[in-house]
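Thread title: Can someone regenerate the structure for this chain?

I was given the following input by a collaborator and told the matching structure tokens would be attached. They weren't. Posting the sequence so someone can regenerate them.
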Amino acid sequence: MKTSEETISLDNLKEGAAIELFNREIQMVLNDIVDPNKQQDAAREVDLKLSIKPSEDGMMGDVILKIKSKLAPMAPVFTKVVMGGRSGHGEARELVSTQQKLFDGDSKVIPIERMEDD
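Best answer:
Regenerated them for you:
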């Protein structure tokens, strides 16, 4: 416990709240980095902002501690669809690789692997 003689620091401000908040935010950043659904090469940030607003006589001050993190955006998800229409209504079906088996041996069908390389 800090005494009234001790100068404030991140270690003792509000009984270590700054460090506790920082540790929580950095853990969120680390969890975000290992999330396979996130954009892996995006930079993450943790911002800690401390403001001191002194009273008019300068004898006291309000301390405001803010911490926030910037996480990566979700990684985009790509797929292919086959589109067409029936009776004036558009339709789309996702093209899944198991459908290729339906066309094995048909020389007019472009294999999905080749389509994805284009």
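The mean pLDDT is 85.
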